[in-house]
Amino acid sequence: MAAQLISMKGRSRRGETASVAAALARHRPLALIEAPATLDGGDVLVAGTQVFVGRSSRTNGDAVAQLRRLVAPFGYTVCEVDVRDCLHLKSAATAIADDGVLINPAWIDRRVFADVEFVDVDPDEAMAANALRLHDRVIYPTAFPRTGERLVARGLRLALVDASEVAKAEGAVTCCSLIFKDLRDG
Question: How distant, in Å, are the alpha carbons of 75, 161, 173 from that of 13?
Fold first, then answer.
């Protein structure tokens, strides 16, 4: 079977792979995986040197195994996470610090994050686990004020955004962003 860029299971998303790969290839070498692996970015959560990968309707075990082999030489470990009642892992959990995760414990087992601190979403804000860490702040939707208060109480600096239009398509702040450090910048 020929190697290909990471395959997205959602038919509507498959066209993104080539254009994103072309943009990223200018900044870093890319790794390939082989079908039948399918992996959506919404199922990959990096916290420090731990890579949590959600097993969901969009990401399968073949992808988890291949990703584990690809990142091990760089000192990363992969932890497979069962996702329930939501589309992606990042619907249920997102990194808010190298050692901190915002989670909805109704959708994932909090024990997988045993080595990191976590903040639970407010029970009345089920979709509130989607936050985007950027340097010294966390980009966070205005739609979840109670969970936002929990993040501020933990000492995080929030940059609040209206993500209501993106939410109509089951999207969130992590869906609209690809944050990486350019290796050429040292």
Answer: 30, 24, 17
Among candidate residues 103, 99, 43, the one with its CA nearest the CA of residue 67: 43
pLDDT, tens only, 131-155: 999 888 999 999 999 999 999 999 9
Q: What is the CA radius of gyration of the chain?
A: 16
Task: Count CB neighbours of 88 within 10 A.
Answer: 25
In the chain, what are the helix, strand and coil shares in percent, each to the nearest 5? 35, 25, 40
Nearest to 67 by CA among 176, 59, 92: 59
Residue 5 confidence (pLDDT) above 50? no
Catalytic machinery residues = 88, 175
> How many DSSP H helices and E strands does the chain contain?
5, 11
CB count in 10 Å sphere of residue 170: 13
Confidence of residue 66 (pLDDT cuts 50, 70, 90): very high
All structural domains of the chain, each given as residue ranges with its CATH number in brackets, are: 40-185 (3.75.10.10)
Classify residue 7 by its DSSP letter.
P
Side-chain-side CA neighbours of residue 105 (13 Å): 10
| Burial class, 99, CB count within 10 angstroms (exposed 0-12 / middle 13-18 / buried 19+) | middle
Give me the pLDDT at residue 113, please: 85
